[in-house]
Amino acid sequence: MMPMRIICNMCPPLLSRLLCLMEMRCYLHAQVEVCLPNGTSTLGFLGLYDDDIAIVTSLGCLEVVPLDLDYKSVPVSSDDHVIAVGRVFSSYSLWALDGVPCTECSNTWVSSTSDTTKAVLGGPLIQNNVESKGRLLGMNLDLNHDDKRYTFLPLGSLKERLEHFQILNPKVIDFHNYSLPKGVSRIIPSGFMSVINQLKALGYPLPPPLVLELNGHLLNTFEGCFGESYAWKGYSPGCIPSVSKGFVWSRLTKNVLDKISRRVVSLASFNEGIRFFACTGLLIKLCGHTFILTSASLVRNDDEGDIDNNLKIEVFLPPNQRRSGKLEVYNLNYNIAIISVAKQFFRACAEDIFKTNPSSEKAYLQLISNEHMKSSQKVIAVGRDACEGLLMGTIGEVKPTNEDSKLNCEELRLSTCEINKAGIGGPLIDLGGRFVGMNFYDGRRVTPFLPKSKIVEVVTAADVLLEYFGYGLPHHIVPLDDGWPTKKNRWLVPPPYWYHGELDVDADDIPVFMGRQLQVGTSKY
């Protein structure tokens, strides 16, 4: 175990940060016990570290004196005297060692006597001159047993190191796009290894240090249900999550609900076994076969400029039909992808998006036309849960304009249905079960959708190409280039990120530490 060293109280009031010498590589998964000046001890979390120092964080408000890292100490000369201070862990006693700076090597000192002790490693080195008595020089790092010389990290270098660790006085705790600083490592407690491995398999960013241990939340995930869930007969893992039970599926006839449940699938793409994306798709009839209409976000590469040809696609139609999918055609400007499966689904009920009749076409035009908008005209956004494949639906209305959308596609419309990322690519239907459009997600409480008319226009070209090239062939992935404008449509999907609102709470309102809890679902992919 390591004794407590310098205390740095320059962080949110819930936490106290301790700077320690990094000497415990063999204890990386051990619990850290911190020896306090009052003769007691408390637990700490070992978070960030590099080759020299480590950061141990203790829960609660320890009564500590802040360390002024902006103070500029007087340069050390050979005539100076220094005092190294440490605390012996076993006896809780304070240990002080008198010394003098070395003239041969900078940032080193030797004991004035023949005594040496490791108890001062990680502790403060203090000037002991009349003019500058008690001024902090830095932190003791190492002891060379051959010449009994100590090495210390100067105060200025210590401040630079802590700034590089990104822990000094964070004004805003924001974990968007967090990554470890260069040359800095982190500790993954052994009790959280299974969670970390799960996060890696699902393609999620790893949490910043201590966020997982302190019950942080992973937001903008593919997991989690929206609206009202609908399970197939025989489903029994547990209670079905529902936000609006009885207000969605009861609005549809039994025949319509049966068709919807047999034509909406969940999809996931993988890069070398790591999940890349998850969304919803709609089985459609195309050139005499069944294909899947979905969002091209399923196969876009990270910079959105093109598709990723290395991705493998899996398609799931509950309760137990899983298929390997293949990208056949795509249109990145309208974010449309057509997926085929090697083996057709049993008892599927594909949507014929090309089929029209006067009554259904009139209802569709009235629904999306600004001139015929009526508040009583309801629509349902449908999706599949990324974990279990539960059917999800939320009810709303089509908005007259698309002014609130973050996406720049002019053909997009908005509905007041509220979905999550798993609902991307899912169908928007009216209460008669008629296909209205395909849903997207921009992180708001409204849902952008591409109207059926534009989808039919794009997919008609796919129908011709698939008839000409055939489908299922390994070398034919066809882009539907429709003469893109100079300004291409952008289809950014809100990325997942970690959040912990309790790290900056008031010091008088310290929450109870509840143990390990992760706000993310498990996936069967």
Automatic annotation (TrEMBL):
SUPFAM superfamilies named among the record's database cross-references: Trypsin-like serine proteases
Record InterPro entries: Peptidase_S1_PA
Signal peptide region: 1-30
Keywords assigned by UniProt, alphabetized: Signal
Keyword Signal tagged: yes
Source superkingdom: Eukaryota
UniProt protein name: Uncharacterized protein
Native organism: Panicum virgatum (Blackwell switchgrass)
